[in-house]
Design goal:
The complex is a heterodimer of chains A (184) and B (627). Chain A has helices spanning 15-44, 54-66, 68-79, 87-108, 116-148, 150-155, 157-183. The longest helix of chain A is centred in the last third of the chain and has 33 residues, at 116-148. Chain A contains seven helices and no strands. The chains are: A mainly alpha (184), B mainly alpha (627). At the A-B interface, helix 1 and helix 5 of A face helix 8 and helix 9 of B.
Chain lengths: 184, 627
């Protein structure tokens, strides 16, 4: 026998709790990247291989920074209670995720994985790729929920907030990655 | 009206599912298994074909594991219970009856019960591996009729990893903690119920993979996975790395829930000073996990990358094998506190209720729990003093020995609580007292390991084996069983058989000490750990340890039978059989599906461990307008 009347009762956390507790996950993700950013110097030394395209790195970083514009727009709409208004921003971020994934895969072709720098660069950027894939799925889920079940999306607005928080965190981590792997 | 009656009246109107068990309820389990195995073999075969290799090589085994794990999760109910709904699909049904124990779902109580069952199964098989080790050590030479040296290495590796990550990491946090945290905090569920549900469903494939690792070549590294041996010890190391990473990830999902629930979902009036001490212990353990585990994840992934992707993090000309040790022990020494801190917190939860005395020095006890978690974060290097041999040694020796200070707070709190009280010694309390004794020995002998000159002699000997078994088996597992006995009425509504509970407590205590105390002596006498062959003068003491170990192992059947029998036929327990002030005991037993029903919520007006004569009841029940 199944009964849906308990679903809401058994998920009692407030939006504040859902959004606040999400930072524990973000903290975990950030420390993982911090480990690899620090490890870059142990395995890769201080030099940057000439084969690594600085142009692509700069372009991807600028793209990530620009992606904060739709993030801020979407947050503003959410604050105003306009769930449907964030769909275009989320779709934009999905496109950005796909471009970032493409850029990461392209950069793998410019480095030798068996070298010290190549290994640490590849595994760190692979981890970013995992995050972009997760972002694509989360963004798609939010868009579909908003368009197919607007009432449910409204009552679970914390999901959209957390997706945007996740994206903001990835932008910060990417900038740190760019500084450590391309400039430092 | 008594608080339990208030709760009862509200709950009697909630009509949860009482459908009896039917075999069809196992469908998600069968489906998950079928999908998981199909996913594994399909992905591994396709990868092997694409890369012109065989299915047991590291790369196909890795791809197969990842795909198989995802398929297993989808089959368990994650698809219809979470994913479909998250994409705006059909609403998932809520299973409120016995069915919820056999499928993915958001109920933290059924998740905790699944943890207990899986922990017992894992403990049994990992324990059988221990028995196999002791059979091998019955004779000084390598016996041809039992394990080869390679099989021996595989056996102690599987035993170690499973006992640590499959048992110790989750017995108290998972089986006891996930059940009690919402109840103790006065909320109906954790902050991310589905993530918590997911945490359990990650475990079976990971545990299965580690146990089955010999089928693809096993691994020779023990539970450490040290390179470069890892890269040269059989493809089974792939399942070791993936299994360990999966188990750690499952623990992370639990840690996030514990921390988030404690920070954001406490009952009205429950200030941090009034949070139950057990929840404080879990919180301290959870923070260790969130902050420390990334180092070890990265180590596991880099180790795996060396095996399947051609990187040279730990091997070859650019490899730094010592870096792996740094990454590994950065979590895995503090991980011991992830096991131990919740166990200590259980002592401090049970003893005041059993002695009917206020928890002594509550603030200092909390400082002890948090202090251990903070200091414990910085001392992993003491595991490889013999490898570093540099200026780090005195620093880490000092920090390690400093941990005894906050640990002392916890012991003083426990002793101060029972001092002068009239302790009612049931089986659970007896096990707690024994655990305190065992951990004292484990802790005191740990000081020698932390001391550089002593450690250089004791490193890699049976002294170390004895030390960590005293802390983990002697303290954590004893306390786990104490916790199961203490909160058994809460979960089942029945009591365990006290005679057999006390009988096996003494059985454990005697044969545990007979098994492991001689290991201190053997270690000082020069018996190395992790070898199938030893010098003949150590035969007698090994024979004694092996026979004691067999009796200890057999003794674990007593609590198992006791729990199973009592679950079905045990005497019915009243709602609060121990007269505890804990919030979890103020509701019906067994805990209803919705522990705090709509319309009534607890408000905290004092600490739950104040048993001083005349102390007011720490909770009042307030009507609420929430749904």
């Amino acid at each position: 026998m199944t009964d849906n009347s308990y679903a809401k009762l058994m998920d009692p956390a407030s939006e504040r709790a859902k959004r606040g507790a999400f930072f524990f996950l973000m903290l975990f993700a950030a420390i993982i990247f911090a480990m690899w950013d620090l490890a870059r110097f142990l395995w890769g030394g201080t030099a940057v291989p000439a084969t690594l395209s600085m142009g692509v790195g700069v372009a991807l970083t600028v793209l990530m920074l620009v992606s904060l514009v739709p993030v801020m727009a979407a947050r503003k709409k959410l604050d105003q209670g306009d769930d449907a208004g964030i769909v275009s921003s989320l779709a934009t971020l999905m496109v950005v995720s796909l471009v970032m994934a493409g850029g990461i895969v392209y950069n793998w072709t410019t480095l030798t994985i068996g070298s010290g720098y190549g290994g640490i660069y590849d595994i760190t950027s692979l981890w970013f790729l995992v995050h972009f894939v997760a972002a694509i799925l989360a963004l798609l889920a939010s868009i579909m929920k908003i368009t197919r079940t607007p009432e449910r999306a409204k009552s679970e607005r914390w999901v959209s907030y957390n997706v945007l928080t996740f994206w903001g965190g990835v932008v910060v981590l990417w900038v740190a990655f760019f500084i450590v792997f391309y400039i430092a | 009206m008594a608080t339990n009656e208030i709760q009862g009246n509200a709950l009697n109107n909630m009509g949860v599912d009482k459908t009896p068990f039917a075999a069809s309820m196992l469908f998600p389990l069968f489906r998950a298994t079928l999908w998981g195995l199909t996913g594994y073999f399909a992905a591994a075969w396709i990868t092997a074909l694409l890369f012109h290799t065989v299915i047991v090589n590291p790369l196909p085994a890795t791809v197969g594991y990842v795909v198989g794990l995802i398929c297993w999760l989808m089959g368990s109910g994650v698809w219809e219970g979470w994913i479909r709904r998250a994409f705006g699909g059909k609403e998932a049904p809520t299973y409120t009856g016995i069915e919820r124990y056999f499928r993915f779902g958001p109920d933290s109580k059924s998740t905790a019960v699944r943890y207990v069952v899986l922990n017992i199964i894992t403990f049994f098989f990992a324990g059988m591996a221990a028995m196999a080790i002791r059979v091998e050590l019955l004779t000084p030479d390598s016996t041809s009729w039992w394990l080869s040296e390679i099989q021996y290495n595989q056996t102690f590796g599987i035993h170690g990893l499973m006992m640590l990550l499959g048992v110790a990491a989750s017995v108290i946090v998972g089986g006891v903690g996930y059940y009690l945290v919402p109840l103790m905090l006065g909320t109906r569920n954790v902050v991310f119920p589905k993530l918590l549900g997911l945490s359990w469903w990650l475990l079976p494939p990971a545990i299965f993979a580690v146990f089955m690792s010999p089928t693809i070549g096993g691994f020779q590294t023990g539970w450490w996975g040290y390179p470069p041996l890892a890269q040269n010890s059989g493809s089974g190391i792939v399942w070791y790395a993936l299994g360990a990473a999966t188990l750690l990830f499952a623990s992370l999902l639990g840690a996030v829930n514990i921390a988030g629930t404690m920070v954001y979902m406490r009952a009205k009036g429950m200030s941090l000073g009034r949070v139950p001490i057990f929840v404080w212990g879990l919180f301290a353990a959870a923070t260790i996990f969130v902050v420390e585990s990334p180092a070890t994840y990265t180590g596991a992934l880099m180790d795996l990358s060396d095996m399947i992707a051609g990187t040279h993090f730990y091997t070859g000309p650019t490899g730094h094998p010592l870096a792996y040790m740094d990454q590994f022990w950065f979590l895995f020494h503090p991980e011991v506190y992830v096991f131990a801190i919740p166990a200590w917190a259980i002592w401090l939860e049970i003893l005041p209720a059993a002695a009917k005395r206020p928890l002594f020095a509550r603030g200092w006890a909390i400082a002890g729990l948090v202090g251990v978690s903070m200091l414990g974060a910085m001392l992993g290097v003491h595991h490889y003093f013999t490898a570093v041999s540099d200026a780090r040694m005195p620093i880490f020796m000092t920090i390690t020995e400093t941990v005894s200070i906050p640990t002392g707070f916890i012991y003083l709190s426990a002793i101060g609580t029972i001092w002068g009280g009239r302790l009612r010694i049931n089986a659970a309390v007896l096990l707690v007292l024994m655990a305190m004794m065992n951990f004292l020995i484990g802790g005191l002998t740990g000081i020698f390991n932390a001391d550089v000159p002593a450690d250089l002699q004791l490193h890699n000997t049976y002294w170390v084996v004895a030390h960590f078994h005293y802390t983990i088996l002697g303290a954590v597992i004893f306390t786990w069983i104490a916790g199961l006995y203490w909160w058994f009425p809460k979960v089942t509504g029945r009591k365990i058989n006290e005679f057999w509970g006390k009988f096996h407590a003494w059985w454990f205590f005697v044969f545990f000490n007979c098994t492991f105390f001689p290991m201190f002596i053997a270690g000082i006498d020069g018996m190395n750990r992790r070898i199938a062959i030893y010098l003949p003068y150590l035969h007698d003491i090994n024979l004694f340890m092996s026979i004691s170990a067999f009796l200890l192992g057999a003794g674990f059947l007593i609590p198992l039978v006791n729990l199973l029998y009592s679950w079905r036929y045990g005497p019915k327990a009243e709602a609060n059989p121990w007269g505890s002030n804990g919030l979890e005991w103020q509701i019906k037993s067994p805990t209803p599906y919705v522990s705090y029903p709509a319309g009534t919520e607890p408000e905290v007006v004092g600490p739950n461990d104040n048993y001083a004569p005349g102390a007011k009841e720490p909770f009042v029940w307030a009507p609420t307008t929430s749904e």
